[in-house]
Amino acid sequence: MNSDPYTTIDQDGWIYSHHDGNTTHVADIHNGNVTNTHNDLLGHAGTDGNVYDAHNHVIGCVDTQGQVFDSAGHHVSDTTLGSAGAAAYLLCVYNGNVS
After folding, report:
1. Quick one: which of 51, 77, 82, 89 is 20 to 30 A from 31 by CA?
2. What top-level branch of life does the organism fall under (predicted)?
């Protein structure tokens, strides 16, 4: 069992958090915008590889190898989905802004 939280995004843009064997729908991503299940904007995936919070502050980024970094430059995850995957992880798991 994977105890580290991670996210997946389905074909409809639903973001799921996976932790300790539990899967929860936590947010959605459409046109780069990430909203929680109450439709509150959490932030967005930039076309520049950066991830922005709801106040348009950079909270992290993804490089061309799919490595996700927080705003301090620490490698925190990996993704195959570019800035959308980075946004899902940083906004919904790493920063925990889903409620």
Report:
1. 77
2. Bacteria
Interacting residues of 61 by C-beta distance below 8 A, sequence separation 6+ = 49, 50, 51, 68, 69, 83, 86
Question: CA 35, CA 92: separation in Å to the nearest integer?
Answer: 9
Residue 93 phi, psi (nearest 5): -120, -60
Q: What pLDDT digit, counting tens, does each position of 17-68 carry?
A: 998 889 999 999 999 999 999 999 999 999 999 999 999 999 999 999 999 9
Global confidence as pTM: 0.88
Alpha-carbon span 57 to 76, nearest angstrom = 18
